[in-house]
Known about the structure:
By secondary structure, the protein is an alpha+beta fold. It is built from 10 helices and 19 strands. The protein has helices at about 5-10, 30-35, 65-70, 80-95, 110-115, 125-135, 140-160, 170-180, 245-260, 270-280; strands spanning about 20, 50, 55-60, 75, 100, 120-125, 185-190, 195, 215-220, 225, 230, 235-240, 295, 305-310, 320-325, 330, 335-340, 340-345, 350.
Amino acid sequence: MSERVKKIYANMDEEVDMIVIANHIDPHLDQAFFYITGYETGLFESSYAFLYPDGECEAVVSKLEETSARKGNIPIEVPENRQEYEDILRRKLKGAKRIGLHFFGLNHSRFKSIESYSSGSEFVDCTKALNKARAVKDKEELKRIRQACAISSKVAGSIPDLLHEGVKEYEVAAEMEYRMRRLGADCISFPTISSFGKNTAEPHYTAGSDALKRNEFALFDYGSTYKRYVSDITRTFFFGKASQEEREMYETVLEAQQIGFDSIEAGKRMCDPHNEVAKFIDKTRFKGRFIHGLGHGIGLSVHESFVGFMPHLEEPMEPGMVITVEPGVYIPGHGGVRIEDDVLIKKDGVDILTDAGKEFMEL
Ligand SMILES: [Mn+2]
């Protein structure tokens, strides 16, 4: 019996005979599969998880990850060959009239095979129930997220040592990623944003080959994954001597982030912190320069659905949600500042999980 499976069913609006979560080929793997199984290692291409209304679940995995799967506590079947694989899937789906599927995470080609293994079943989208279950983290999930945050925070502290005139964006990114791995990260949680000068004004820049020059911003947005759970952090530094306006940009974003933290409260709407921060920034000389949502949910994915500090999310904040708080201001052609931390919402306040320093730093 799995608490997570029970939680998913508790969030379902419709009845189904079973929920089927199916991986395709990397990178089309469904994070929901790992939410259900909890597997720490292994790729799990073409694997399946079957979830039943009584809270039971089982998985079909290949021999390639059998050892990793045996460490979990759900029953597995490991087919010997292609024929056996298809027979198992047909047997599991047999007689199911209504099957719940994760429409958001399911590859279309994998869906076609599920359809072919089933016999006239009706398919129901269970994306919402899965998202709701994943929104509130349990103890094991928090343990992993905390460790991912600790690794990323530690690397943030060493970024200033990596910055010198002429160093390239990709060189700093490579060094940061190496350090995360050395500290025990599984991998990076998304392509590292390592940006200098005018590139810092583009929130979703990645890392190019620009060399660091004096008197410009250097912004790093990155994260590590620990046992599949991510962290996401941004720090901005000034290389050289900042102008009054550049310093003000930084101080405004830092203050905005504090306003964000202060507006987080279980029970209030998820859009409230965003609205407070946007209102504050729009009263400064950087009016209109905050061009994205204040934060997104994190967990197995860097951008988790349903959770976040976004203007369109009116559902209440709940204890156990983990969300980023990342205000920024961007001046195209010149530069940008963003400061990002990951917070855990608690019954009474917040726990800031990324603890790297963020005082304005001129290097
Ligand atoms: Mn982020």
